[in-house]
Amino acid sequence: MVWDLLETLGNLLDVVNLFSSNSSSRGLHYNDKPAKKKKSKYYTEKVSGCFIAAAGILLFFVFKDPLPAENYTQTLLVSSLIGTAVSGLLFFLLYVLNLYYFKNFFKLLLFSGSVILFFISLVGCVYFRSGLFV
C-alpha cells in the first residue's frame, strides 16, 4: 500500500517535470557528453607558427652580437641540451594532461620542432644576455 503511494507520487512528479518550463534536466542522460568548444581548423599550425616566430626573435637577440669565443661550441651544446630537456618536460606534462595528440605525423613534427626550437632559443637568450652564466 505504501509502495503504491510512493510509486504514484513518483509518476506524478515525472509528469510535472515533463510539463515544467525548466529544461535544465531535460536531454541530459548518463551517456551524454557535454558539448566541447569547437577548436579552430588550423590551431596546431597557428601555435607552432607563434613558437617559431618567437624563437626567431630570440635567436636574433642572441646572435646579433658576436658570442664569447671561449668554449663556444660547448656553450651552444649545453644550452641546446637544456632547451631540449625543458621541452621534453613540457611534452610529458602535455601527455599526462591528454593534450599531446595529433591527427597526423606532420602536425606532431611541426609542433615538437617549434617547441624545441623555442626553448633552445629561450635558454640561449637567457644564457648569453643575462650575464649570469658568462
From TrEMBL:
<keyword id="KW-0472">Membrane</keyword>
<feature type="transmembrane region" description="Helical">
    <location>
        <begin position="75"/>
        <end position="96"/>
    </location>
</feature>
<keyword id="KW-0812">Transmembrane</keyword>
<feature type="transmembrane region" description="Helical">
    <location>
        <begin position="108"/>
        <end position="129"/>
    </location>
</feature>
<keyword id="KW-1133">Transmembrane helix</keyword>
<protein>
    <submittedName>
        <fullName>Branched-chain amino acid ABC transporter substrate-binding protein</fullName>
    </submittedName>
</protein>
<feature type="transmembrane region" description="Helical">
    <location>
        <begin position="43"/>
        <end position="63"/>
    </location>
</feature>
